Amino acid sequence: MLTTAPRGTRDILPEEAAKWRYLEDNIRECCRLYGYGELRPPLFEHTELFQRSVGEATDIVEKEMYTFEDRGGRSITLRPEATASTVRAYLEHNLYAGPQPVKLYYMGPMFRYDRPQAGRYRQFSQFGVEAIGVQDPAIDAEVIALALDLCMHLGLKDLAVELNSIGCPTCRKEYRQALLMYLSEHKDKLCQTCLGRMERNPLRVLDCKEEGCRTLTTAVPQMLQYLCTECAEHFQALQRCLEAVGARYTLNPAMVRGLDYYTKTVFEITWSGLGAQTAICGGGRYDGLVEECGGPPTPGVGFAMGLDRLLLALEQSGVTLPTASKPAVYITTVSKDDNQEAFTLLTTLRRAGISADKDYRQASLRAQLKAANRSGCHFAIIVGGEELERGAVAVRNMISGEQKEVKQEQLIEVLYESLKEDAR
């Protein structure tokens, strides 16, 4: 159908776009306070980047990526997430040669072939931060605090932080054996996808959304019991940092997140008002990802936040978000002969920094004033008649109904003062 957007995509119209701009402005300000600089990576990357970083046994790579061959025969994928792109940019531009950590954030569309539902689209918008180059657990706490501060500043309350550690390659070897032993004893209850994942990466079974697998994995051995000394100390230090700044959390030993590159810290921030899909934000540490992408061993940590879902949560929680801006001034004309004069005045006001619009239908003055009222403007200016002969216009306050004559050379100053007074 040429008249409908593809399934899982949508148009963001002016009324809603104003909410997005408000959200994006708050994100930029929050990141400025925390010292994160904006990165704008490309919308598509070489497919291998995601296969190596996200993991070939993940749902994203196996089922959800939009992959195609370009005219040069190269396999290209629309980005399903942006951590891999951030690490690629970190290496390509030698950011590791400067002061560490390198603290970056990004906003923009991601693409996954997923089942559309409330707050979930096939083209969706994501905000994320990445801090690359330090191992300090305080930086883990920083990215969690940033996400919480942003949500709370926007007015979203009753957030829950779920926290876990999935260890490092050293302690995961022992855990992998224990997990494999448990899963082998219950193979008949696993879905076909998880049966295939068992040998490649059994941790992926813990992230399966199939009801049978979810029920089975509630009794699996817990990774927290297998942490090596370094991972256990890192996790304890992270918890102390969160407690020091009043960030409440609960431990969720079953959480592994859906990407292979995670090590040590993993977390989610949830809001119960979203129903079954409660997660607004998720992330963790990825100390092996830079090396996997061809760089030196380099630690990193970050999160990604779904903005479609965040906006839905804000609206459902009753937070009032700004809508499309309304013109401060609406220009009308007494007759068609006044149209050129009105257009000149319209341009003059805009160039002076006053938002303005006019009626282009050449309708009656009464109809134009009705249109001015519907626009939500502060003032309607009537051009023409005896006022124009005197070098003036009529200015009507659309709230009080008061109307007065103003000389054209004084109009901008009068509007400035009146708009300033109304804003108080």
Explain what the structure shows:
The chain has 424 residues and is of the alpha+beta class. The chain folds into two domains: 244 residues, BirA Bifunctional Protein, domain 2; 90 residues, 3-Layer(aba) Sandwich (Rossmann fold). The chain has 15 helices and 16 strands. The strands form three sheets. Strands 1-5-6-11-10-9-7-8 form an eight-stranded mixed sheet, with helices on both faces. It has a five-stranded mixed sheet with strand order 13-12-14-15-16, with helices on both faces. It has a three-stranded antiparallel sheet with strand order 2-4-3. A hairpin with a 5-residue loop joins strand 3 and strand 4. The longest helix has 21 residues. The model has no long low-confidence stretch (mean pLDDT 91).
Offer a quick outline of the entry.
The protein has 424 residues and is an alpha+beta fold. It is built from 15 helices and 16 strands.
SSE class: alpha+beta
Q: What is the CATH architecture descriptor of the largest domain?
A: 2-Layer Sandwich
Q: Using the coordinates above, name the CATH class of the largest domain.
A: Alpha Beta
Q: What is the share of helical residues? A: 25-40%
Instruction: Give the overall shape.
Output: elongated
Poorly predicted regions are: none
Number of helices: 15
**What would the average pLDDT be, to the nearest integer?**
91
Q: Give the spatial strand order of the biggest sheet.
A: 1-5-6-11-10-9-7-8
Strand content: 15-25%
